[in-house]
Amino acid sequence: MSHSSTIHESLTAVFQVRRFPDIIPAGQEDISNSGPATRRHPGSEHTELGVLLWQRAMDPQVGTWSLPGGRLRDNEDLDTSARRQLAEKVDVQQLMHLEQLSLFSDPHRVPGDRRIASTYLGLIPLTADPQLPSDTRWHPVSALPHMSFDHGTVVEYARTRLAAKLSYTNIAFALAPPRFTMSTLREIYCAALGYEVDTTNLQRVLSRRTVITPTGATAPPGKAGGRPAALYRFTDSELRVTDEFAALRPRT
Amino acid sequence: MSHSSTIHESLTAVFQVRRFPDIIPAGQEDISNSGPATRRHPGSEHTELGVLLWQRAMDPQVGTWSLPGGRLRDNEDLDTSARRQLAEKVDVQQLMHLEQLSLFSDPHRVPGDRRIASTYLGLIPLTADPQLPSDTRWHPVSALPHMSFDHGTVVEYARTRLAAKLSYTNIAFALAPPRFTMSTLREIYCAALGYEVDTTNLQRVLSRRTVITPTGATAPPGKAGGRPAALYRFTDSELRVTDEFAALRPRT
After folding, report:
1. Is this complex's ipTM strictly greater than 0.85?
2. Are residues B129 and B143 in the same domain?
């Protein structure tokens, strides 16, 4: 059978937990029977998982938003290619974690020449604030703009993988600042998982598995006063499975 | 820059825990000061993880052993392609699990045209005995034959991934028979992990996480007599992470 040209590309979903302005959904700006408690105030913000997207200035699909990525070169492997493409959109020094996800190989995923996409998950910690080029912006994952091709599906896939890995690895090290209070860590988990988690449970589980370690220091009290909060750090800064069956490990 | 032809292929490491004849390593057949306890007897066997390989009848690398796989067609995605290629070497009905591993994309991984390999892990249960074509054979992973290209590295990668997943998922369901004693399950874990595990610990951990469920039935006693052993089954027959942080799940 004939083989037309096939292009290999990388596509990376770079996530960061960020503050985003609250947006009142269209059509709900003035629901007359909603009480003051349900109204959003201009200038108010919330914390959410953000994804880095750039807007296409040319066809195909001009104006839609794309994941960073591009074509594999003859002289590089896919990991090298993904990092090179990413560096055009964000300071890769700020990337704490980058891992291969799945291949998107549907013959019809993009029009024209076949493109096989090797997808990646990239993570940037809460406190980093990388410079972005003018075509690039953070978007909250709950309100993605009009996405190019199947890039919205890639974001969903990456987000699902991140949530799964939060449950059995220490991957949150790459979303957290170097030192943090449990309250901050809870905010990161809630944003990345998309649902509420309990601070006490989180601390208990992560401490028992030695995923996090107390630093001995405390954070200065906030405006409301109260007891100073203990500061923690992640025990490791490389990905590891945090709950291998201890009983199954070889005896050393 | 110019782009020469690039081929995309699938390569699958199909594993099964099997009985293999004991082999006395060359040069150790007759060590005069080894006692009778260390001598292997002809006809003796051991249980080990096996990998399905076929021997190349043509160049390049005629005579070396390869993983099942081959070139992606224009009209199929990679998962479909991997299954199609596998079907030439083994009855895919017997495959209990197939998952994408990593991409092997080093520009120089094979001579000639560039080939990007999408690698897969496939698992066949202990009691299956699929028919094989004449060029195909099971090999113990501890004694691989002369392997083609980087296929030996792919086997190592797949084996490492399997061992990791045994520790935090129920993936052993795809290596075990439908019903099994703890003694059989221990043998499967030992073979797949490559080190000894304790039956009592294994049963305790897997039961607590509801990875396995007692069937209520027992196996007939062996030749040595003794108490009949309880039969278990895997609770699920699809891959799942067996130790998500219960505390972090959304309340239902």
Report:
1. no
2. yes
